[in-house]
Amino acid sequence: MTAKSQTLILIILILIAVGVTNISLAPSQSAENKNNAIALENSSPTTSLNFERSILSGVERTTFAASQVNIKILPSRNWDILDPKINSQSILVQSLDEYFPFYHLNTQKMWPMASLTKLLTAVVALEDIGENKKILITEKALATEGIAGNLIKDDIYSVRDLLKIMFLTSSNDAASAFEEYIGGKNEFAKLLNQKTRKIGMMQTVLYDASGLSDLNQSNTGDLLKLVKYILQNHPDIFNWTRLNSFLAQPLNGTDGNLVQNINPLFIRDNFLGGKTGTSDEAKENLVAIFSFKNYRIATIILGSSDRIKEIDNLFEWMEEAYSF
Question: pTM surpassing 0.85?
Answer without folding.
Answer: no
